[in-house]
Specification:
Number of strands: 14
CATH class of the largest domain: Alpha Beta
Largest sheet: 8 strands, mixed
Radius of gyration: 20 Å
Shape: globular
Bound molecules: (3R)-3-hydroxy-3-methyl-5-(phosphonooxy)pentanoic acid
Strand content: 15-25%
Distance between the termini: 37 Å
Helix content: 25-40%
Number of domains: 2
Length: about 350
């Protein structure tokens, strides 16, 4: 893949010091990314809803320094040295595309809107927020970037930190991964889903049920690695491509029954891959299964097109159209919260994407 368009080639003098400030959302995949190759490139295309309430705010202070890129990370104002290796690795990966970074030291102030120990991955929103800050720094060197170039390269850089972070720059439905017939799609960065989308999906709700707040049982690096040599890998990658094709008319028509079928099948397939890998992982908890069963029974009796999706963990994302909220949310409160860790849940919905924040100072 030709990455030359992303190599910075502008002036090599920039600001002595300053600060930039961005908010980037989390996202939840409808068609899942599981399996990668090369430099964080996906084995199949994926599609996600951008979230709104779950986001990371990052303020990046930069100052000219001797060339060793010193990094300090503060989470909610407190030193967080355990985050530093990951951020340093991210900066090293960004360096070939932003050679001017070498001259700076960095202080990263970061805040997640969701609790750090909630079991919700902060890497997508965190890496996207940092990538957007790096792009703002690039813009101080070369102000001529168009908005489109800025967001595309931000997604490209975010991907180097965490694959799914490529989908945390734009809003609405975001596509990451080359797919024939989907214009502008790329393995290198995410783009707004380029096809027609029925308005019902613009305001979809996602109530995230926090079944287990522990550390992830399988890191995503290990998880993606499990697809290398997995007996079902080829069929899975092909299925994801087919599901993306099948989702097209579903999204265009607002076919909610079709949406339910596809989205749940993707979630269960992701877990099926882990259940059948070597070594194998069981990431659902008894509470997860109880929620899935109750949710399906509720759908059958009530007729509301509510469905679930899962990440690589025990938590459940309950997806439903805004018009079903009055029926679905009371059901969640009465029947599902008992399976959550201390009843914890987050009411989220589809969001509009990352935004620059005021108050960066200098
Ligand atoms: O971005 P990573 O490397 O943490 O991978 C995320 C993979 C899933 O969340 C399980 C699926 C997805 O497409 O987001």
């Amino acid at each position: 893949m030709d990455m030359k368009e992303f190599v910075y080639q502008g002036p090599d003098t920039g600001p002595e010091q300053g600060a930039v400030h961005w908010e980037a959302p989390s996202n939840i995949a409808l068609v899942k990314y599981w399996g990668k190759h090369g430099n964080q490139l996906p084995m199949n295309p994926s599609l996600s809803f951008t979230l709104d309430a779950c986001h990371t705010r990052t303020r990046l202070e930069f100052f000219q320094s001797g060339g060793s890129m010193p990094v300090e990370v503060l989470l909610d104002g407190q030193p967080a040295p355990s985050f530093e290796p990951k951020i340093r690795q991210f900066l090293e990966r960004a360096l070939p595309f932003q050679p001017f970074l070498k001259g700076y030291g960095f202080r990263v102030h970061t805040h997640n809107s969701f609790p750090h120990s909630s079991g919700i991955a902060s890497s997508a929103s965190g890496m996207a927020a940092l990538a957007l800050c790096l792009m703002d720094l690039e813009r101080l060197f070369a102000p001529g970037l168009s908005a489109g170039q800025f967001r595309r390269k931000a997604s490209f850089l975010a991907r180097l930190g965490s694959g799914s972070a490529a989908r945390s720059v734009d809003g609405g439905l975001v596509l990451w991964g080359t797919h024939p017939g989907l214009e502008g799609s790329s393995d290198a960065y995410g783009v707004p889903y380029p096809e027609k989308v029925h308005p019902v999906f613009q305001d979809y709700h996602d109530t995230i049920l926090l079944v287990d707040k522990g550390e992830k049982a399988v890191s995503s690096t290990v998880g993606h690695g499990l697809m290398d040599g997995h007996p079902f890998a080829g069929a899975r990658f092909e299925q994801a491509r087919q599901n993306l094709d099948r989702l097209g008319p579903v999204l265009a028509a607002g076919d909610l029954d079709g949406f339910v079928d596809l989205v749940e099948s993707e979630a269960l397939t992701l877990h099926a891959m882990m259940l059948s890998s070597s070594p194998s992982f069981i990431l659902m908890k008894p509470g997860t299964l109880a929620i899935l069963e109750k949710l399906r029974a509720f759908r059958k009796t009530s007729g509301h097109p509510v469905c679930f999706t899962l990440d690589a963990g025990a938590n459940v994302h309950v997806l439903y159209p805004a018009a079903s909220r009055e029926a679905v949310y009371p059901f969640i409160q009465e029947a599902l919260l008992e399976h959550c860790h201390q009843g914890h849940h987050i009411c989220d919905r589809v969001g509009r994407g990352a935004r620059r924040l005021a108050g960066a100072g200098s």
